Amino acid sequence: xxxxxxxxxxxxxxxxxxxxxxxxxxxxxxxxxxxxxxxxxxxxxxxxxxxxxxxxxxxxxxxxxxxxxxxxxxxxxxxxxxxxxx
Length: 86
Description:
One of its GO terms (biological process) is positive regulation of transcription by RNA polymerase II. By secondary structure, the protein is α+β, with helices and mostly antiparallel strands. It has a single domain (about 15-85), classed as SRF-like. It is built from two helices and two strands, in the order αββα. It has helices spanning about 15-40, 70-85, and strands at about 45-50, 55-60. Strands 1-2 form a two-stranded antiparallel sheet. β1 and β2 form a beta hairpin. The longest helix is centred in the first third of the chain and has 26 residues, at about 15-40. The protein is flat.
């Protein structure tokens, strides 16, 4: 028995949408960590919620790390700088 495909569409209920975003974000970051570990790859993710809140993941502390500067522009600038150097 195969799993059925679900239709990908915007979730109408805002509370349900936020819960789904939170769960999927955690899953995405977990997959990024696994990919980084298994393949020794450098991974960077920048995700914005519908409210504009920034969520970031980096496989190296050098790129985004736990910087006290949480400005989306600063984070994006660091990412672009890192990509230019590579």
